[in-house]
Amino acid sequence: MALKARHKRLLLIAVGLALLSGAVALIFNAFSSNMVFFYTPTQVHKGEVPHDTSFRIGGLVLKDSFKRGDDGLTVHFVVTDTAQTVPVVYKGILPDLFKEGKGVVAQGKVGADGVFTASEVLAKHDENYMPPEAAEALKRAQEQGKTVVMPPSK
Amino acid sequence: MIPEIGHFSLILALLVAVLLGTLPIVGAARGNEVWMGLAKPLARTQFLLIAFTFVCLAYSFASMDYSVAYVAKNSNSKLPIQFRIAAVWGGHEGSLLLWALILSIWTLAVSIFSKHIPDDTRARILGVMGLISVGFLLFMLAVSNPFERLIPAAVDGSDLNPLLQDPGMIFHPPMLYMGYVGFSVAFAFSIAALIGGQLDAAWARWSRPWTTLAWVFLTLGIMAGSNWAYYELGWGGWWFWDAVENASFMPWLVGTALIHSLAVTEKRGSFKAWTVLLAICAFSLSLLGTFLVRSGVLTSVHAFATDPRRGIFILAFLVVVIGGSLALFAWRATSVGRGGKFDVVSRESFLLANNVLLAVAALSVLLGTLYPLFVDALGLGKISVGPPYFNAVFAPLMAPAIFLMGIGPIAQWKEASLPELSTRLRWAFAISVMTAIALPLWLGNLTPWIGFGLFLGFWVLASTVILLKQRLAINPSSSLIARLKANSRSWWGMVIAHLGVAVFIFGVTIVKGYESETAVKMFPGDVTHLAGFDFKFNGVSGHQGPNYRANRGEFVVSKNGEVRTVLTSEKRLYTVTNMPMSEAGISPAFIHDLYASLGEPLENGAWSVRLYHKPMVEWIWFGCLMMGFGGLLALTDKRYRIKKRSKSVNSQLSEVAI
């Protein structure tokens, strides 16, 4: 039996609304579960960071902190916001503009030993350009008025 | 002197644009034919002035005039000439000038190819384009003057960003802008129609070829950018869901919806209000994209603080254009009238569903791109949403859209029957499912994603074959050639563009499912095995480029002892900016790409290197080329050629409307 035109239209609208709300739910769910938050090395030190999800840290690569493993691919370096430092380990090839003393952003998780295991290291393509996150970390450290402590270089 | 002449010419262009944006529109409202008639000569004058301005800036670059701040910032005496010219659009000010130039080219084109459009409509269209031009020219003259002098002049320029020193820089931005700005034509047509209260099939037929052409440019521009990122960044990726890419992808999604909805408006008279709304959105997103990329807001939302006038001008301009046109839409859209009725199951509803899916997809990209900026601007911290978000959203939204793409062209207008459609398409469905399972099993790796991706690709392919069979079965007594010719070029364009989508899906699915990559430390003479190939590293040698020094590494790739290709990849150091850059070595082919990129130098001549085997990755760009070609073919359709008959019909229509 064929539906009446009015019923058909109502059905269409109902199905359309249901699908649309499904799509919106999908988008917001994907959005909230894939948001990556940013923390400064100071916040990492205070333990304000999540332990099971990955997040981003930013700051400067501490001078003379860069060490390369025997396999040539595992690298160790220290990220600082000039107030606190976080040791980072990363296995892979670093971006072209990665340099000691320059800005860097890393994404990954922090372990129980306090070492940040990076899954991704970002440094953007401009020699004078500071990644926004790194600049933010330095700014926040300055605003908190902490004495700038650069650990002695080895 | 030349920069001052250019500056002066830019001021004159603004004056002409102001006249173009006012007199013809007022003339159309009052029925003053002289004022309406001014639109054409004003559009031409504007083009000449902006083109002259552009030549002045290009001359300043070519002649290395480092007393111009913009030239000093974006080029260098050692920069090769082709990049010195392309550097005109290498920064903020120059890309705005390119934008204004391209807008004046589209305006000129509309003024030439609009003989069949009634005078008042043409006057309104050119007037709206003139108003947009006023916004851009005013912005440049007020806060982004490319001719600003540097006193004292620089001895040499600080060079173009090395990342941009690539042939991609010569083609990609102009193509992309031709697409962005091209949507201004559809926008102007819509605004003109809203003002004049004339939205009919003739209106849709006039705006369709312009919209299709803009869409073709945008498609090819995005394709060129994706391909450029693939070989330039050295990471083997072709799409990063970067904010800059998203900025171009949003207008593309809405533009794709628009060209389909215009087809319905022309053929069936339905979707009028929706089409107008899409035209407004497509251009608004193009504007937003231009400013997102070119205002520095992505680098830091606080970049506005260094020159707040720019930020405020941009926001004000966006509010006026987007808010104004949406307000006009809300006010006038009710007068547009309803189009032809259609059933729940009909080609119209399939196209409508696809339109909504594309629009929702564009919204999801907008959310992912803008939300982090808002959070940052409000001082609530820094967040980022990367590829995982976009991948999680995009596959579920696009899959039903692509499924419907197979059904839509076969379904009848107005009222189709589901049982009949399923009878027609059941073989296409069965074959797609079977191939999508059998092929990965044969290739040795079946995952749900690979199977699903291949199914969608084969589904588009198989349903297009059914469509072709159905069309060619009409009039079986005539020859095959005659039956092929019986279908219009725009129909063939649609078929080719849809097949392009299938090719694109195959490329994406296969490269995601079967690519291999490795990052290793290699000494000269070392061999690394990857995907059945042996990559032998022959070490690096030094080379001197025009403005860089390079370490050039050589990789000999062989399979079963037989040499297949030699890849050379470079690690460059651009001496002026002291910036390192990678140039990947790629051997592109139909079946797969072999890809090698140098990482960092290690001890004793060893390097860290990245090696990739990318099956069918070239299909991604070839699919885009097919979509672009389909669009171009549709443009050559007979019915867009100016005919005397349609002219008389149109003038009758306009008389009725008056």
Description of the structure:
A five-stranded mixed barrel of chain A has the order 2-4-5-7-6. Chain A is 31% helix and 28% strand. Chain A has three helices and seven strands; from the N terminus they run H-E-H-E-E-E-E-E-E-H. Chain A is an alpha+beta fold and 154 residues long. Chain B starts with a helix and ends with a helix. In chain B, a hairpin with a 4-residue loop joins strand 8 and strand 9. In chain B, helix 7 (119-143) packs antiparallel against helix 13 (308-332) and helix 9 (201-232) packs antiparallel against helix 20 (618-635). Chain B has 21 helices and ten strands. Chain B has a five-stranded antiparallel β-sheet, with no helix packed on it. Chain B is of the alpha+beta class and 658 residues long. Chain B has helices spanning 2-30, 33-37, 39-62, 69-74, 81-86, 92-112, 119-143, 167-196, 201-232, 243-268, 272-294, 303-306, 308-332, 347-377, 387-407, 418-443, 448-472, 480-485, 489-514, 618-635, 644-657, and strands at residues 383-385, 516-522, 527-530, 533-544, 548-559, 562-574, 579-583, 585-587, 592-601, 607-615. Helices cover 64% and strands 12% of the residues of chain B. The A-B interface holds A 8-9, 11-12, 16, 20, 23-24, 26-27, 30-31, 33-38, 56, 68, 71-73, 92-94, 96-97, 125-127, 129, 132-133, 135-136 and B 161-163, 234, 299-300, 343-344, 349, 356-357, 360, 363-364, 367-368, 371, 376, 381-386, 388-389, 392-393, 396-397, 519-521, 577-582, 599-600, 602, 606, 608-610. Strand 1 of chain A pairs antiparallel with strand 1 of chain B, so a sheet runs across the interface.
